[in-house]
Amino acid sequence: MIASPPAEGPFGVEPPSSRAQPSSLYPGRFLFAATARASFGPRVDRLGRLLFAGDPIADAAIDALGSYDRRTAHAIIDAGARGGARGVSEAPEAVRAYFDALYTLPLWADRARADRGGRLLFRTSMLTGLVLGAKSLLLGYAAPGGNKPLVLAGGLLERAPQRLNETARYVRGVALPGGIFPGGEGFVITAKVRLMHAQLRRSLLTDARWKIQEWGVPANQHDMAATILLFSSELLSGLQALGVAIAAEERDDYMHLWRVAGHLMGVDPEILPANAGDATELTAMIAATQGEPDADSRALAQALLESPSRAAVTEDERKNALRQIILFRVAARELLGDQMADALGVQPTPFRRAFPLFKRLIASGERVQKMVGDGQAMKAGQTYWDNIRDLGLARYGFGFELPQL
Asked: What is the DSSP letter of 176?
């Protein structure tokens, strides 16, 4: 049973009396619109305006939760994530509406397809982890406006290992069989992360440091869709660049998995990729209107690069961390290209000369897996991702709690 909220509470900040209103169609970070319009037409303007768009359902839920103390608010969120609106029957209407929306999946959401797509994560295990860190997350940091919520949230170096582990646990939870559907681990995490984004918007929109005319709304629709691209199409292209063979049906099923995840994360259907073709087009539009990585991009990249060393406790872990950092730098320069790697401050390493051999070994392994089946690879992959989960639970707890800025 959830008690009625008190008149005021210490959870987060008080709801702003009015949201900051933009005075232009899109913020200053949205560049080269005229040039991009020549290639993509008027869709470019709609893309830019989504930088000012939040997530009304989640925002309303967070405003309603602002009257509760922090412990009670988290108890409500956990109960709703695991049981839907019926689990929080006495919570405010906006909170019940949020969980109702989460538990109402669209007709196109196909669990069998999503489960098949998730198998890719487990059969490629460490390679997916490498691409996630050396490509997907770095590309997310490269956006000079999109990286500002992370920077202003603080703890750039200190929280980098935890942030990396929580990202990996989220991706694992989504890919588990049934993981992104009600009752699944990824579903529960998504329900909480979406509210984390809303709390971040709520806090930063009242923060004098936030430049809405330059950066747009924190955790906006444009950036949420871009994040889905990083975990879906960009991860696929990274695996293929390493030499992993991905059949068309497996690729499409994996994209479907992240379409469901994007829907649950609150991404507007207008900007949610339905397939690999949509994802490629949206990626190109975003790239055509995005500025170069800035100092914050490089600081975030450096924090990510150093995270294995910061997380290491034993001497063996420290030695292994050094090897991970070298592999990370080699893979980042290979997967991002030298120009982007330089812009992010990822220094070159002579070990890159060995990368073609690394790719040939991967290709050989793929051929063997095709001949004998992927049973062993799936088992090893499950162990790999379970170890990441167990490490995170031991060091950081479940995590995914609302930020308090």
From this structure: S
361-364 — which CB contacts under 8 Å span 24+ positions? 362/127, 362/242, 362/243, 362/244, 363/243, 363/245
Helices (H) and strands (E) in the chain, counts: 20, 0
Which stretches in the chain have pLDDT values below 50?
1-19, 405
- The neighbour count for residue 147, using CB atoms within 10 Å, is 21
Is the dihedral angle over the CA atoms 321, 323, 329, 333 positive or is it negative? negative
Under a CB-based contact definition with an 8 Å cutoff, are residues 91 and 2 in contact?
Answer: yes
The CA distance from 185 to 177, in Å, is 10
Entry pTM: 0.91
Give the number of other CB atoms < 10 A from CB of residue 124: 24
User: Which tokens is 6 given?
Assistant: 């008190």
CA 279, CA 144: separation in Å to the nearest integer?
21
What is the per-residue pLDDT for 314? 86
Would you put residue 183 in left (φ > 0), alpha (ψ -120 to 50) or beta?
left
Helix ranges (DSSP H) in 19-153: 33-40, 43-49, 56-65, 70-83, 93-103, 111-131, 137-142, 148-153
What would you measure as the largest C-alpha separation in the chain, in angstroms?
65
Q: What is residue 21's predicted lDDT score, i.e. its pLDDT?
A: 60
Distance CA 183, CA 150 (A): 29
How high is the pLDDT of residue 368?
A: 59
- pLDDT at position 366: 66
Residue 374 DSSP label: S
| Contact in structure between 268 and 53 (CB atoms under 8 Å) | yes
For the beta carbon of residue 150, count every other beta carbon within 10 angstroms: 20
Work out the angle between the directed axes of helices 56-65 and 70-83 (0-180°, nearest 10): 140
120 burial type by CB count under 10 A (0-12 exposed, 13-18 middle, 19+ buried): buried
DSSP-derived secondary structure for 288-310: HT-----HHHHHHHHHHHHHHHH
Per-domain residue ranges for the chain?
A: 54-104, 109-396
Q: What are phi and psi of 216, to 5 degrees?
A: 85, -165
Contacts of 69 (CB under 8 A, 6+ apart): 6, 9, 10, 11
DSSP 208: T
**∠ CA 255-258-261, rounded to 5°:** 160
What's the sign of the alpha-carbon dihedral 215, 217, 221, 226? positive
Q: Which residue has the tokens 């109960």?
A: 79
- 394 burial via Cβ count (<10 Å: 0-12, 13-18, 19+): exposed
Question: Alpha carbon of 352 to those of 136, 252, 357: distances in Å?
Answer: 19, 32, 10
